[in-house]
Amino acid sequence: VGQVGELTGLKEIEGVLVTEDGATLARDKTSEEVHVFSPAGVKVRALLPSKTDLENSPDVLSRHGELKVDDLGRTYVNRASGYVRYSASGQREAVVQTKGKGGPPPAVWKVGWWWNGRTLMDSTGNTVTEIERLPSEEWMDFFDDTVVVAPNGEIAILAFDGFPSAEGPVKVGFYGRTGSPKHTAQIQVNGERLWQFAYDGTILYFARDKDILAVDKQGVCLWRFQLPQRKGAYWQVFSSKGGLAVFDGIDTVSWYAIPK
């Protein structure tokens, strides 16, 4: 239904986030700048690191968990010293470090809170609450890469019994906006490892080697669609603009409508 062309101005993209409203944030591996593009593919601004940020930059970063945006439009960029927070207009504001252990899930959401993996944090880094178990009370292995927030604020977490494998099955825990447990679903992997996915509050969309797999909240596979062939592609999917945004891992984001 729409497509962003080449994400220009970056030498090598390491880390992409497509927001609910269609903005694309892409991090340049060399300069550590984060470039922000409009849904039409027009560069809006660049989030520039300070000299200290560069000195403290970690050697290895998560491909999916290094960029966060809160409900005030502020961006958090992961670095060794903490998350560097930028204002909605792109101004560097502060370094936010995680602190505290938090408590049970709060009853009411506060503006400015954001999920850092399975930890709910405020804008200064204080831990509000942390998800440790599936809603079914099982203790499972979580990876922060596999924690996804839907546009309506609900949480889905992909959990494994040990290290992720293609043997399956895997389980998905569903939670309310503040981390209150809802229910657990089991998904049969069928020979292919599930990892990166999007969640729109109703359906899970798993990016795989050659296709996108749609799964409902009960773990039932609904449909799949074939992705275009591109050498070196490493697919990532995001819930955006009422549909799906798919990044090819190289330089292109494409939008797809969801079948009714």
Write the element-wise H/E pattern from the N-terminal end onward: EEEEEHEEEEEEEEEEEEEEEEEE
| Number of separate helices | 1
Structural class: mainly beta
The quaternary structure here is single chain
Helix content: under 10%
What percent strand?
Answer: 35-45%
Radius of gyration equals 18 Å
Whole-number average pLDDT? 85
Widest sheet, order of strands: 1-23-22-21
Largest sheet: 4 strands, antiparallel
| Global shape | globular
Distance from N terminus to C terminus (CA atoms, Å) equals 15 Å
Keywords:
single chain, 260 residues, mainly beta, four-stranded antiparallel beta sheet, 1 helix, 43% strand, globular
Architecture overview:
The protein has one helix at residues 51-55; strands at residues 2-4, 13-18, 24-28, 34-37, 43-47, 67-69, 75-79, 82-86, 92-96, 114-116, 119-121, 127-130, 141-149, 155-160, 170-175, 181-187, 197-199, 203-207, 211-216, 221-226, 236-240, 243-247, 253-256. With 260 residues, the protein is mostly beta strands. The longest helix is centred in the first third of the chain and has 5 residues, at 51-55. The protein is globular and about 45 Å long.
